[in-house]
């Protein structure tokens, strides 16, 4: 998050939650990973004992089931896995998403392959004075792809990066497309923001025109749902107005400012193909000078046609 936004230099409303815990445990992990033998053996034992002690201290000892479960799981973890699991546990249990009166940041949730839609929504958010987080722009995730971190740790570290983003966002919008079904992350990301009482209006979904009704989960009825960019912008404007703060100022120069990204689609593919077919038939008919033309029981309407 520090890499994505120069937040500490902007305003108090953008100070990063969980930053101290993140730096402490990630530094510990990197220290272990990049210490070579024979020094590693002594360092690892010390780090392992310290991490186990800290893990058991934060687990509620009054909850004997959780305490025993964590204690048992620790035995089967490598020291590296232990460090990352502690970080994830702390982020999920000690921090909630940012309060509604904090400077707004939008978490944009999407399925792999839908990144262009997510980036377009990021542009809309920046236009409406919202900071934002979208995974494909997070430098830590990019670094992770080419790092020497053991493969078994990658899902855990990825989860920590996403959790850091979630606890530092006030709003969430999900890109709902035909690719969304089966996503394991999207329901969690949507639910994490809405877990605070009264936060259902801080969650929204953009619905791709190809999305079938059966693929729209019922829990999303608790939040807002949009089909057009203008609706997303109106929602962001209203949320900004309700915030009533003038000291929130996300970075003026945005990485997407000069990027040409297509607008969100508003017409389903089958409707678009039908329109193309009808237009082709109109061309074949010699471009008859009519305001409207009936073909295959469908009407082509031209600009200026006010007929019913």
Structural account:
- Helices cover 44% and strands 10% of the residues.
- With 308 residues, it is of the alpha/beta class.
- The protein folds into three domains: 77 residues, no CATH class; 139 residues, 3-Layer(aba) Sandwich (Rossmann fold), CATH 3.40.50.450; 33 residues, no CATH class.
- Helix 2 runs parallel beside helix 4.
- The protein is elongated.
Write the layout of secondary structure elements.
Blueprint: H1 19-33, H2 39-58, H3 64-75, H4 79-94, E1 105-109, H5 115-127, E2 131-133, H6 139-145, H7 154-167, E3 171-176, H8 185-193, E4 203-207, E5 224-226, H9 229-243, H10 269-284, E6 292-295, E7 298-301
Parallel strand pairs: 1-2, 1-3, 3-4, 4-5
Antiparallel strand pairs: 6-7
Radius of gyration: 25 Å
How many domains make up the coordinates?
Answer: 3
Q: Based on helices, strands and strand pairing, what is the structural class?
A: alpha/beta
Number of strands: 7
- Strands side by side in the biggest sheet: 2-1-3-4-5
CATH topology of the largest domain: Rossmann fold
**Beta fraction of the residues?**
5-15%
How many alpha or pi helices?
10
CATH 2nd-level architecture of the largest domain: 3-Layer(aba) Sandwich
Anisotropy-based shape:
elongated
CATH class of the largest domain: Alpha Beta
Overall mean pLDDT: 82
**Spatial separation of the terminal alpha carbons:** 54 Å
Order of helices and strands: HHHHEHEHHEHEEHHEE
